[in-house]
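Just scan my protein:

——
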Amino acid sequence: MVWPPSLLVTLQESGILVLHFRVDVKYLCEVGKRYCWPKPSTCPGCGGMRLWGHGFVGRYFEGFVNPLWMKRFRCPDCTAVHTGRPGGFLNGIRSPAEVVRSCLAAKITNNRWLRSVSRQNQQYWFHCLRMWTSRLSNATLLSLAHLESFVSARIFSVTEHFAPLRM
């Protein structure tokens, strides 16, 4: 096993099926499956103590041609499979959270898409923001407060998507 050079691997549980870790994505790309993912002490879904490794799954991220290997953990008590994911990315989106935040903030404040990022991706993110906000409140205009709660919540399970998952 290869340990990260700066020990940035503190567990951040966010959601039931995706575990967010502080991971250097470039380092993860270099070492691949040899990266030493920390094992959660309990299952985030049911709290069970018998969580074990369940292989790896490839996930695509912006800036990388090949998929990066994410560690999976399985809980025999609730039969859930939890997948590790770098902390700087939202679930279901391959671009960093800061890019998503800046694009959506530009759309909310200036009513324009950023030219540096694909318009289709920005429209998809904006649609996800509108769908997420409409579940919480009956807001007609989106604000920066809606955006901040959306990005910090990081809830993007596959069943919540209207559009195809961009991974």
Q: What stands out?
A: Residues 11-86 form one domain. Residues 1-16, 155-167 have pLDDT under 50 and may be disordered.
